[in-house]
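During the reporting period the student researcher (J.K.) took over the structure-prediction task from the postdoctoral fellow and processed the backlog of single-chain submissions. One of the processed entries is reproduced below for the supervisory committee.
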Amino acid sequence: MPDDRSPTRRPRPRRSLALVAVAVFAATLTPATPAVATATPAGLVWGACPPPAEGSGGDTRQQCATLQLPLDYRHPHGRQIDVTISRIATAEPGLRRGILLSNPGGPGDFGLDMPSFLAAALPAEVLTRYDLIGFDPRGVGASTPITCGITDPVAVTDLILPYPAPDGSIARNIEFARTTARDCAAHSGELLPHITTANTARDMDRIRAALGEPKLSYLGYSYGTYLGAVYTSLFPDRSDRIILDSAVDPNRIWNGVFRQWSPSVALRFPDFTGWAAARNDEYGLGATPAAMAETYFATAAALDREPLVTPGIVVTGNVYRQITRVLLDDDRNFPLLAAFWQALAQASPPAALPALRRAAPTAQIPADNGAAVLYAIVCGDVAWSRDVDRYARNVAVDRRLFPITAGMPANLWPCAFWPNRPLEPPVAVTGKGPRNVLILQNLRDPVTGWPGAFGLRRALDRRATMVTQDAGGHGVFPIRSGRCAADIATAFLTTGTLPDRDRFCPGPSPDDIAVTSAARPIPSGPLAVR
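J.K. obtained the following structure tokens:
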């Protein structure tokens, strides 16, 4: 069995990806600050967490501790890095089963505040059985952060995710990718090659061991599904109950995952246009979904020609496209998105835009930390093609087939010029291991589309059961799950029961959404692998 010493051979204060839409990834989850540090038998010293994100709440029970872990697991006694973890212990130790480790996605998202989020959102019967454990993954936030030296990420918001020019040219993307790859190596040097999914999974197993647990249960969202699949493939006998929510295909890492954004957004888009068309008296954006789509394309084209200058950001056509893409991840964003479209269709500064700007990072966390980790992971997990002409051809095809996303998902990343090749092949995700994985997926997820979840289901084979929910948006349990999906996930975490076959569930009712609305969606990076 592989272990953490030998890589397997075979994808504001404390926020993530620096896009203008990044604050749409709010709610940011907040750590608490207990007054007294305490030690555990494992030697961890628990105390105050880093300062919380501005304006966010947190659970006063949440504590943090820092582990020293190997930078390079091939040399476990060499250089060490910090990985900061958090916990909220169960209030009923007599019912405790173990630990529930969580990851919000990304790559590049902060995870320390996940216990606070989950403590407010998970059913009581789950909370009694687990200590909730979060962590900032290696390279992120409070865990020895890395940087690529991008001092003003908002200024290059349409380049961090590679939107081509309005005429389809990728010359600007090539220049940015080449420069960024060079700068990432210059600023993060020795750290950069070791910020990978496989190493983060090995860190998770060290967290398990430090907490004195024989196994860990896990709840991972978006990119966190790939991380969880890698963990349970590396350490199948140390995996207890694994939920992978809004899933990534492990056999399409990473360019293939990103290209799937185009059809996934196209499938999701009518949910919003239909909603807004039914409210045309309020928003005036079009009385039919087709008219709404015409408004979108006309507004984007107008902003391509003449961007709108607002305090803090210039709204180009690509910024408009990106904010739209991000806000599609939750039906509860639809009123904000409609107001945003309405203001821009009238060529006036949108009143909602200040809410979309992220708070400045702390002095200890580089402004581009989320973007730097995003690049480190997607470029370090697997080698990308260096054929620039191939990306140009793919962009041209996607622009014709999927104009909503304007060719961005097919474009090149800094990975095409990455200075070092991956240190190891991607971990093989297979059906070898216990049957202990539940995959949850919305049918019309614009970020990690249904085909990606099916790809993960196929890779895990007999190990997994997949539950598809007839809903749009990104994230299921306990973010916007209907009773059917929520009951299956709750039963799995509390009793270990998996359905004997894959299931199709109705989406959430208005009552279900009201129950979960207080706990806003998990923060997310570009996949939200944002």
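The committee noted the following: Residues 20-147+190-256+425-516 form a domain with the Rossmann fold fold (CATH 3.40.50.1820).
J.K. will present the remaining backlog at the next meeting.
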